[in-house]
Protein 1
Amino acid sequence: MVGMSRPDGDQRVALPQPDPGVAQHITLTGPLADRDSWRADACPIVAALDVLGTRSAFVILREAFYGASRFEQFVKRTQLSEPVMATRLKELTEVGVLAKEPYREPGERTRNAYRLTEKGAELLPALTALFSWGSRWQLSGPQQVELAHADCGGLVTSVLQCEHGHPVDAGAVELRSMHRRRELVVQGRAGERPTRA
Amino acid sequence: MVGMSRPDGDQRVALPQPDPGVAQHITLTGPLADRDSWRADACPIVAALDVLGTRSAFVILREAFYGASRFEQFVKRTQLSEPVMATRLKELTEVGVLAKEPYREPGERTRNAYRLTEKGAELLPALTALFSWGSRWQLSGPQQVELAHADCGGLVTSVLQCEHGHPVDAGAVELRSMHRRRELVVQGRAGERPTRA
DNA sequence: CATCTCACTTAGGTTTCTCATAGCCAGAGA
DNA sequence: TCTCTGGCTATGAGAAACCTAAGTGAGATG
């Protein structure tokens, strides 16, 4: 997808000179410490990409967050073809990221709207993270958009935080195997679906 | 990529019954309010996907964050083929997400290590967000992994925050066009690369 | 010099994503 | 009943992402 064709105005620019790599990484703990002793068979990132692994899925999600709900809107606003749109909407509905909701305009027949479910809505941090990164490192020039906090006007980004509300530095992230922690459930808002533990 | 073939143990499971879509979306402001009046030509998400739009790129990044740096490690740990690895590493290096760094083991010839640059390291929130989402909504069963805060042991996720440190609710996000805000630069740590404005 | 290994490259083929074009069908309006 | 429209579906083709298998080439080791 690197040379991914984009139909419209391309304004990609090489922005910064990258530093010779000096970056912290995640610490592997316990039985995971020896990376060559295990395989990432159940990788959550890959599992997520099984659902959103296409450009079209991301773009459709973007428009869903921008407020689109009807087939026609999705097609027009994403510039994707109708066949792709139909396929993707069906898939995203099947996996529960979108939900069909019949609606009827006066003098029209019943049609389906596609709305984000809670599962879909929870993709916002992922989309936002890509948005911020792309904005900072890949785009330049005018005509840019940004995400702002309605309350204070500040730029919105996606940051690492632990369930106790601490800001988490990249160097302070550990990967560990999850052995049925039943006690650490905190901060789960009521009505949440599959709260682990 | 939805039916994306995965070489190893697949343990995808249908977890929750999605609700009939009722989710807040982002508010479009100013000239962007009428979504049909503009095209998302310079979409930062698409720009990001131009770089990481493949499964292999994500998986390579994952392993980079897990500590891999050598060609052989990347191949073994990602289960990707050598041709794909060579191509992807070159591309990721070219766009500045990874940087080559020559190293030499005693009794070996000089080889290249690939390390995350700052640009690459800043993808952690995006990877983490996908990680959390995939873990919560797509995976189940044992053998799962999770990200924890080294300091307190709490689960790490990616959350929305504005530049003033406020937690941002999904309903409080606005999309606006960015007209050269030179004043609002806050919180920029020294040494940061392309701080806007 | 011959051999080995690691880091790639080349060649060939399959699957998936995408597009454009052309239907199809349900229901409203004439 | 005929037509129009919006929401899909079907078909066929090109590009891209992957794979396996088989090189290549630089620098150690024997």
Note: Helices of chain A lie at 44-52, 55-65, 71-78, 82-94, 118-121, 124-138.
Protein 2
Amino acid sequence: MARVLVIEDERDLQQVLAYNLRKEGYEVLQAVDGLEGLRTAKVHRPDMILLDLMLPDLPGTEVCKGLKADVTTRDIPVLMLTAKGEEIDRVLGFELGAEDYVVKPFSVRELLLRIQAILRRAHGAKPSNPEDALIFGRLRIDTAAHRVWVDDLEVQLTSIEFRLLVMLYERRNRVQSRASLLEDVWGLQADTETRTVDTHVKRLREKLGAAEAYIETVRGVGYRFAASPDEVHA
Amino acid sequence: MARVLVIEDERDLQQVLAYNLRKEGYEVLQAVDGLEGLRTAKVHRPDMILLDLMLPDLPGTEVCKGLKADVTTRDIPVLMLTAKGEEIDRVLGFELGAEDYVVKPFSVRELLLRIQAILRRAHGAKPSNPEDALIFGRLRIDTAAHRVWVDDLEVQLTSIEFRLLVMLYERRNRVQSRASLLEDVWGLQADTETRTVDTHVKRLREKLGAAEAYIETVRGVGYRFAASPDEVHA
DNA sequence: TCCCAACTGTCTCCATTCCGAAAGGATAAT
DNA sequence: ATTATCCTTTCGGAATGGAGACAGTTGGGA
């Protein structure tokens, strides 16, 4: 799930936000002033940032400038929390490249929707090229279109199978335990004695046919996507 | 670079827009009410116009009519800025002929994308009319006229249906979640527990008849417009 | 002003697909 | 050979999306 950094000095609000974000399944990073926020952003690279405009050390505008000035954080969308609906704040926020803003007091629901929208846009906009599918040996994956091909023949995967494949691929050459797959693909956290993952891996392999060998079993640990297409042994 | 006329009375928003447009390399003309907007449009012939629906002297709809009534400004695409809940239906149809609209508060990023899309279309179809229509297999879409044909037979779509179709088409071969469609077509931010999108897709498909197969359902994810007219599965 | 037609969003119902669990068979490790 | 681990098959319940119906709105015309 997505990681959200909350830069907010009011303790109570910080708690409320963190609680609600976690409840929605986000991973939450917290910072209570601008400098800490900048540091955390640079180190942890969150998927987006909630930024209070009024902070004890730096004004939020400066934090925003700081974020935009650094290549590693430049592209992280910022959602501004402004104390009053002053137009000036809005202007500054946008000028500085904030993605959106909400005015306090805001409803948590509204805020969550904005966050969702931003993350959706960020994800959707990532592969802007028309035909940029991942290619791995005989396997081709187009995440934007949600389509998969093996040897130029399209394979119909269900959404879970697709997520499982992408997750394995993104972390190729690293063993994924069943528990971590359950968490990342299913969004569950259960210390599991279930064979659910096995079942889906099996179905996925079936559908992948010739490309099934890319998914390797690591006995006693979990599953691993091959490091390179050639490494697969017959 | 393209010239954009911004007709907007709120000073701050005017500034935000101008700043961001210039940053993107556009030349910006500004007007703070409808009459000034009409004059400026006639004199300077911008490549497109951002028009607030709520202006001090004239409603934006009237400005739009005025633009369409004058030969020198008739072909300039108009992008409407509307507040939430304002009637947007009539804005789009034949009546007013606006090219697109965004609902306030909008993210500047989103707005810039829309502007890009409009200018791209406009440039591609320089000699304004005859081949202004997009062709996709048996489907023909004329965004300027808001008309659609299937196998050379015109299909009557409502404004939402049209917008939905265009949105899907412009992002073809990319799955659109229901939530993102709700946001981009309806201008709503909502947890999608609703079947509204499904219903409209269904109605759209009905009307498209033979071309309905271009709109594909991706179970558990959303909808996707086919990548190419031939790829449609039986 | 009133009425009618068109449009839109929501609801319910239903067929289909999909998921997760269970259980027994197969395979690798010791 | 024995055990631990993984694969395979099967099946009922749940989720998903489409079809149809309906009421609230809106705009246009009588």
Note: Residues 125-130 of chain B have pLDDT under 50 and may be disordered.
